[in-house]
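[Discussion] Sanity-checking designs against the backbone

I'm trying to build intuition for which residues belong where. Below is a structure token string of 224 positions. I'd appreciate it if someone posts a full sequence so I can compare it with mine line by line.
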């Protein structure tokens, strides 16, 4: 059992948010294996509310072209309300992540043009060969969203176990109406997140840093 825990720990520690990809496609069977394993995520009453659409090849590029155009011409309308604010430790972690990325890419804090250009990379999925659009069932509300979040986490871990890199993207779901129309997604399915995935460019500056994680004392209380 300890060997199992060690193996899982290694996979989770290797996973990171990948923001630069090779052109190499992930084999269909590997995608199916990843999704099948992610579907083992526990859910309330075994509801399993998630669904996903995965693009590959030219379809990823077509979708990215549409989304990039939308991002420059429309306001965001996510299915889920954005956080009202980030404060305290949450804001510090958010800022640190942004600073690490810009520093790795050599983008100065006051270089608005390059920052905007990097932001737009979200909408072409950082040139990943695939993107998964993850949806959840509207009538299940927050509990369905929580269950689907478990699927999302397990997807990224299962992908890493296959040697596939990922990055979850809330930015894509900011344009939910355009995504819904493009893929003909019914209104009862809420667009929860997107996951860009493929094989990472390990020598790219955007993949050269790792975010810090909260220490155990920040999140754990054991009461005896």
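Best answer:
Here's mine. Compare freely.
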């Amino acid at each position: 059992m300890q060997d199992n825990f060690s193996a899982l720990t290694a996979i989770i520690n290797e996973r990171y948010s990948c923001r630069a990809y090779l052109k190499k496609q992930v084999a269909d069977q590997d995608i199916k294996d990843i999704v099948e394993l992610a579907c083992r995520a526990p859910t309330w009453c075994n509801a399993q509310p998630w669904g996903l659409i995965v693009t590959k090849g030219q379809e990823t590029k077509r979708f990215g072209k549409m989304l990039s155009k939308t991002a420059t011409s429309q306001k965001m309308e996510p299915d889920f309300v954005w956080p009202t604010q980030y404060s305290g430790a949450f804001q510090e972690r958010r800022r640190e992540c942004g600073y690490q990325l810009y520093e790795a890419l050599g983008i100065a804090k006051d270089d608005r043009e390059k920052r905007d250009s990097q932001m737009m990379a979200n909408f072409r999925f950082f040139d990943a060969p695939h993107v998964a659009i993850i949806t959840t069932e509207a009538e299940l509300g927050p509990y369905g969203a929580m269950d689907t979040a478990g699927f999302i986490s397990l997807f990224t871990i299962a992908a890493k176990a296959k040697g596939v890199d990922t990055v979850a993207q809330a930015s894509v779901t900011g344009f939910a109406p355009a995504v819904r129309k493009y893929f003909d997604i019914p209104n009862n399915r809420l667009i929860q997140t997107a996951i860009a995935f493929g094989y990472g460019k390990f020598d790219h500056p955007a993949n050269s840093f790792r975010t810090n994680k909260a220490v155990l004392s920040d999140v754990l209380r054991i009461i005896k």
